[in-house]
Amino acid sequence: MIGKVQRVCCVCGIRLPDERREDLIKRGCGTQLGTGQVLFHCPHHPADEILKMINATPIFQTGKDYRKYANE
Question: Does residue 56 come out as left (phi exceeding 0), alpha (psi in the -120 to 50 range) or beta?
Fold first, then answer.
């Protein structure tokens, strides 16, 4: 398939299963924002950790590395 996107967790950077967007949301691996954007994450991350990553300033690091510095 041309143009296929590999989805990763916005918090820890791990690859998510190769499923449709709607299926990932049903499994708890996606949060739909008010703008229509879907933010993908692992289902075991707490809501406050996901919200912290939504509001974080983007930098060129993996989520795992960024999370170490965001807690300071």
Answer: beta
CB atoms within 10 A of CB 13: 15
- Under the phi-then-psi rule, with left for phi > 0, alpha for psi from -120 to 50, and beta for the rest, what region is 13? left
Cα of first residue to Cα of last residue in the chain, in angstroms, is 42
pTM for the structure as a whole? 0.65
| Per-residue pLDDT tens digits for 18-57 | 888 888 889 888 888 888 888 899 988 888 888 888 787 7
Long-range Cβ contacts of 18-26 (<8 Å, 24+ apart): none
- Secondary structure (3-state) at 70: helix
What gap in Å lies between CA 11 and CA 1, rounded to an integer?
Answer: 27
